[in-house]
Amino acid sequence: VTAVLGLEAAAPGECELTHLLQDKLRYEMRLQYMKHYFPIDYMVRVQYEEVLRPSNITRLRNRTVSEVALRYLWFHVSSQAVLRIREVLPEKHPSWKYTQELGQLFDALGEEYSKYRQTDVEEVVADLVKLVHSGGTKSRRKSVRPKALLDNCLKVMWMLYRAPCEWGLG
């Protein structure tokens, strides 16, 4: 069935970890830790490529980028977003522990990805991942609310993992 739909199955470890991320990214937690505990209208400066929205995924799917490559891109962009948020937090900030837990889940997901050959990802995805990790010397920057970064992380995760991992939105 997944072959007919064009979806490539995710590894069991990926599914378990993304399910844990889904739980950690519940609306109430994002609202409390990424909005209420920050000053009103607080923004984080990120590279343009560090904002991954569902529309970006749809555009890449239309260019026939594989689901595996899209999940690889989501992982790199989302883990970088968590790092960007952590960079602005002092250790005593109420959101520090929450972002640390998110970072640990992404680290574990990175271990899952290290088991696979990622040289097979499409060039457009490989180029985007390089830009995300380049430090942004050539990239444009934009200001984004911390909650919006995690909102996008969750929305894209739903798009990429819900069907292959068979977990719902609840």
UniProtKB/TrEMBL annotation:
UniProt cross-references to Pfam families, sorted A to Z: IL34
Superkingdom of source: Eukaryota
Gene3D superfamilies: Interleukin-34
Alphabetical GO biological process terms: positive regulation of cell population proliferation; positive regulation of macrophage differentiation; positive regulation of monocyte differentiation
Any one GO MF annotation of this record: macrophage colony-stimulating factor receptor binding
InterPro entries, A to Z: IL-34 (IPR020415), IL-34_sf (IPR038328)
GO cellular component terms given for this protein: extracellular space
Annotated protein name in UniProt: IL34 protein
Gene: Il34
